[in-house]
Amino acid sequence: MTDQPTTIETLPESRIVTVQQHILQEQKRFPGASGEFSWLLSGITMATKMIQAHVRRAGLTDILGSQGDVNVQGEVQQKLDVYSNEVLVHCLSARESIGVLASEENENPMLVHRGSEKANYAVIFDPLDGSSNIDVNVSVGTTFSIVRRPEGAGLNDPEQWVLQPGSKQIAAGYVVYGSSTILVYSVGNGVHGFTLDPSVGAYVLSHPNMKMPDVGKYYSVNEAYMQTFPPRYAEYIDRLRSGVLGQKYASRYIGSMVADFHRTLLKGGVFLYPPTASNPEGKLRLLYEANPVAFLAEQAGGMAIDGKRRVLDIQPDSIHQRTPLVVGSRVELADFERFVLEK
Ligand code: P6P
C-alpha cells in the first residue's frame, strides 16, 4: 500500500484508448486544426453508434424490408439505408467545419455550411454499404471519405469540393457491423481499428497500426460473373487457384464490400470487382467505396488499382461514377500488374 498520492503521473498507463482520445492525438498532425477535425470525426462515430443500434435490432422492429422507394442508384432503398443516411446527415450537419456532404443515397451533394467561413471539409459516404444483405443478417458497413475544400472552391460549388482524386483524402474509414462493430480509420498516419464496447457505448482501440499481410490465402470475387470478366482477369484468378504464387488460395466472398475488404486488410490476399457485362465500368463507386478502401489499403502497406492505374490517382468526373477495383496485398497485386497489365 503506497502512501504516495495518486496523480496523473502515477496512474498506470491506460490500456483503454477510446477513438476520441486517439483522434485528439492524431489531430496534432494537422497544423492549426483547432479540434475541429476531432469534432468532425465525432459526428461519424456518434452516427455509426446510432446506426449499429438499429442494425442490431433489424429483425425485431418493423425496419426490415424495403422502404419501397428507389434511390439514385436505381436500387430499392432498404429502410435502414434511409435511416442511416438521415442519421449521418443530421450528425454531420451539426459540425460547422463541414461545408458539403455527399451520400450514395442522394443524387446531388448537400450544402450544410449555412455560409460559415469555417466550413473547410467535405464528407463523402455510403451510409449502409451492402444493405441488400440486411434481411439475411450478413455484415454491412458505413464508409466515409474526408477531403478539404479545394483552393478557390466557392462556398456554393459543392461538386468542386467532392470531385477530387482519392490522393487528396485527409482521412477515410469504415464501420463494419459484423459479429462486433469495428471502426477502422486513417488520417494518413497508419490504420487503426476500434471495437465498440456496447456496455459503455465507446469505440475502444483494438487494432493499433493495422498492417495488411504482404501475401494472403484468400481471393475474393463474385465467381458467377467469371464468364463476363475481361479474359486476363479470369486467367489471373486461375493462376491464384493453381498455386502459381507458391500457395493454394481459398475463395471467400461475402457480397458486402466493407466486410470483404475488412477480411483482406486483416488476412491479406486480394478482393476484386472487375468490369462485367452488366457493369463494364465496374460496379463499385469511386468516391465512397473504392477511394476509402484504397486509402486504407495503401496506409496499411497494400495496394489498390482500377485494373490499369492506382485508384487514388483517378480524377472523378461525377459523384456516383463507378470503377473496377483490385485491392489487397503487395504480392497478389504485383502479380496482377505483371500478369494482367503488362500483356
Ligand atoms: P455483387 C453491395 O451492394 C455492393 O455495392 C458492395 O458492397 C459489394 O461488394 C457488391 O455490391 C456486391 O456486388 O454483384 O457481387 O452482388
Descriptive report:
There is one protein chain. This protein is α+β, with helices and mostly antiparallel strands and 343 residues long. The chain has two domains: 19-207, Fructose-1,6-Bisphosphatase, Chain A, domain 1 (2-Layer Sandwich); 218-341, D-Maltodextrin-Binding Protein, domain 2, CATH 3.40.190. The protein has helices at 19-27, 36-56, 79-93, 158-162, 231-242, 257-267, 286-299, 330-341; strands spanning 66-70, 76-78, 98-103, 110-111, 121-129, 140-148, 169-177, 181-186, 192-197, 202-207, 218-220, 250-251, 270-273, 284-285, 303-305, 322-323, 325-328. Helix 1 (19-27) packs antiparallel against helix 2, helix 2 (36-56) packs antiparallel against helix 3 and helix 5 packs across helix 8. The mean pLDDT is 91. It binds 6-O-phosphono-alpha-D-fructofuranose (P6P). 6-O-phosphono-alpha-D-fructofuranose (P6P) binds next to helix 6.
Rg from Cα: 20 Å
Distance between the termini: 72 Å
- Main sheet: strand order: 4-3-5-6-7-8-9-10
Helix content: 25-40%
CATH 4th-level superfamily of the largest domain: Fructose-1,6-Bisphosphatase, subunit A, domain 1
Q: Any idea what the shape is?
A: globular
Alpha-beta content class: alpha+beta
* Main β sheet profile: 8 strands, mixed
And the CATH topology of the largest domain? Fructose-1,6-Bisphosphatase, Chain A, domain 1
The tally of beta strands, per DSSP, is 17
Q: What share of residues are in beta strands?
A: 15-25%
Brief characterization of the structure:
The protein is built from eight helices and 17 strands. With 343 residues, the protein is α+β, with helices and mostly antiparallel strands.
